[in-house]
Each structure stands twice: as structure tokens, then as C-alpha cells.
């Protein structure tokens, strides 16, 4: 696989270094997500890769050429830049705005040849913005304008696209749409994308590589499946009440425990939504009996719940069941997620026998709403 961008011993910054020790090889056609807390140097790195800033030390090569030696017109054909931009150019249609991306390919008068017009149309189509061509840029919503910015960058026909927080200020629909577009461009056009991101869960699902930066250093670089672990994400963002789970591909927030403890009779994913609801209500959670590898086991662990998990292949393991029954004595109420398993039914029956309040939850919709009301009244 061709290495398109290579950083060797790179140090970036202004009067003082911001990031040092960056060694990374970025293959062609891959999406690289830059992750780290605010002020870690993600934007500074992007500005250095785009040659807005000179490296303080080390080197950058793009397509085998030293970045500092590439003529400006050639660099514009290689690299497109979408740094944080709130400009709304007046009296420009979206087509005219996107056509500005053709400047590295047109004559000194900036005249568009038929091929240039086709490239602009293709760029608009690639970001699903054909219907915006005649609209004025200043009249676009944030999501629509971001599509126009991406189309303008694509019109340069670059091999690398650098983006600084491409989904900032966008609503959910447009965040998903923009990330899907970028991911698709990597696959369909072989475009290499390097983007600073704030959403770890998005990076885990979209990026081919992630670079973690903090405290002036590159902490890790590699596939998100290998790099993004609960420990590395917690250390990167100084999490105290949250856990990232790579198997779930997201972050679970642990609530402050202040409203007692519930035993959730769950399994096979039936309890995940219940766990999250109770955590938000400040309820400590015990749950079981769960099979090893059950989705509920992963969510419960991420939320810091007490879980009774039966090891794989140990169908006759009574010790886990006995421990779960013993935990009932320390709970204030029980939530039954309705599984027909014998151990689940026995746990629910034991709760009734002990006189514990028993609530039923279907895992979604009205059942969860009723549970939330009942817990809120406790």
C-alpha cells in the first residue's frame, strides 16, 4: 500500500513546540482521525501539514516529495484544506463558490473550461449537493455550507484532504451525512483524509487510523481497533465517570450513585437500555445471570455495574447463580426484562418472595418510560 504522507521526527508549534515526536506513515485512500483534548495541537498539526506553518523540526513528505520543496501550484493539486471557516462569501452561488477550487487547474484569468465545469458538477454530486448549485452561499444552513466547502475542496482534485473539526456546529443528520461522505470518498476516489475529531465513537467507526495527541506528544498511532482501548481513551481525556468500550464502539457515562441499588434480571441485550436509564437516575446496578460475551455484560461493565457472568460452556455453573441470588439481599428493587430463562424466572420469583418491589421493562418504548417514572417516584 502506497504511503502518501510521511512524518518523520516532526515537531510543530509557533514560538514554542506544541507537538513533538510525530512519526507516522499514512497510506493512500485512508481516513485518519486526530484525537485529543482541546489545546493538544491537532489544529497546529493540520496547519503544518498544509504548509500554513513551517515544521520546527523533522520532515513531512507527500507523495514522496518534501513538503517544503513542492511548488505552491503543485501543492494545491495535491492537498485541499478545510480548516475552521465561518466565512459566508456574499453574492456567490454555490456553483461559483465550488468553482473556486479549480484555481490550481485554470489559466491565469481563472476561466473555466468545459472539463472544469464537469469537475465542479461531479464535486457537488459527490457530496449530494447538486440541488444547491444555484443557491447563494450566504443563505445556506451550516450543514449545507459544509457540503459546499467539501465540494470546493474536491474540485481541486486533491490526493489529500485536511479538515479541522468537519462536523462542528452541525446537527445530527448533517454530522452523519458529512462523515459518511468523507468515508465514501476514501473508498470511491482513493482520497486520503486527515481530520481532527472530538467524537471518539465516530472515529472508532469511521477512521482507518487514529492519532492520539496529548501533553505535547503523539501518544499512539494505528488502527482504532488496536489503539482505542478503555485505558487509552480514559487517559487521553482524563475520564473519571465514563468508560470507552471498543466492543460497543462508544462511551458509557456512569451516574453518581445516590438512589439505591437495583438488580436487573437481564441477558441477550435486553438490559442495556435499562442499565443506561438507571445509571442516569443515579441507581447502582447489579445484574445477571449473563452469558460470557453477552452485550449486556459489556454495557454493564462499562457502567461499573456488579455483574454475575457465567463463563462460556459452564451451563451447569451454580456458583454464579448462587452469587446472583445472594446479591438480591442487598438491592432495593428489581427490574425484570422478561427473559424466559429458568435462572431469570427464579431470580424474579425470589425478589417477590423477599418482598422487593418488582418492575417490568420491555427494553424500549413505553416499558422504559414507565420504569423511569417508577424509579423517579422512589
Can you walk through the features of this model?
The protein has 378 residues and is of the alpha/beta class. The chain folds into two domains: 3-229, Rossmann fold; 254-376, TPP-binding domain (Rossmann fold). It has 14 helices and 17 strands. The strands form four sheets. Strands 6-7-8-3-9-10 form a six-stranded mixed beta sheet, with helices on both faces. The N and C termini lie far apart (60 Å).
Layout: helices, strands, pairs:
Elements: E1 3-13, E2 17-27, E3 31-35, H1 42-49, E4 57-62, E5 65-66, H2 72-78, E6 79-82, H3 94-99, H4 114-126, H5 142-155, E7 160-164, H6 172-189, E8 192-196, H7 200-206, E9 209-214, E10 217-222, H8 224-227, H9 230-237, E11 242-245, E12 250-253, E13 261-265, H10 272-280, E14 284-291, H11 295-302, E15 306-310, H12 318-328, E16 333-336, H13 342-353, E17 358-360, H14 366-376
Parallel strand pairs: 3-8, 3-9, 6-7, 7-8, 13-14, 13-16, 14-15, 16-17
Antiparallel strand pairs: 1-2, 1-4, 4-5, 9-10, 11-12
Helix pairs in contact: 4-5, 12-13
